[in-house]
Amino acid sequence: MSAYAPWLLFGAIVAAIFIVDFFFINRNAHEIRVRESLIVTVAINIVVVLFAFYVRSIKGDEAMLQFFTGYVVEYALSVDNLFVFLVLFSLFKVPERYRHRVLFYGILFAIFARMAFIFLGVAVVNRFHWMLYLLGAFLVYTGVKLFFEKQDDERTVMEGWFFRQVSRFVPLKKELCEHCFFVREEGRWLATPLFMCLLAVEMSDILFAFDSVPAILTISRDSFVIYTSNLFAILGLRSLFFALSGALRYFRFLNYGLAIILTFIGVKILVEEWWRVPIGLALGFVGLVLGATVLLSLVFPARKES
Question: In percent, how much of the chain has pLDDT > 90?
């Protein structure tokens, strides 16, 4: 068997997933329901199991175990991303029917970004690791701001100080223009909030890779095992995001729960040099906050307008 055959097979599987997703399942922009996203999540996990047995057939039992371990670790470490994505979409006021488009291109970018991280190894991660603390500080600031922000506030992040400064160098359009990332007005191209949200999603994925890639590099040194398990986890999390967002949007205290979770994630990043929060503890805290959010929303439902 050619040394490139496993890579070609993996590339074909990922390409097939994207083709089915983009040209069939989500051909038209629409709001993705919980049931639809759960079906896709289950389907991707079935593909993961089948691929794990393929890894076993070409590399042995130990490689298959490393593949599963890497997949689970990346899945657990990337749960933080889901809540960051929820807040980013809220900040940029991205309608639910266009969120899939942003994450679709975000995953395409992640394919090449994660490849660079994994193949260049820990050296790249260590060189730019300081940027992770900027993300931590930003998440703490955003979490506190979100907690005290009125839910009916119609302002977007595009009207904030940072993007007012950015607009001095990059032409920006404050309003969404359907599903477009750029729009042409008066002879010049303007970046839309959808494009700025895409950049924010990609930057958050890169910064979170500083945390997850070194963890996976301790599990295996086989680049094929590391990369495939890492990318399958990202694909699975994207579909899980829509299940999560679809289920939680009905709860009136969701914003407060997300604010607390975001602040916790930011603090977790900032203190990791002195104390690395165990994955189990972090997931338990997230689950506790979400459970409390759901319970409070059921006990104190929003009043219906007459």
Answer: 13
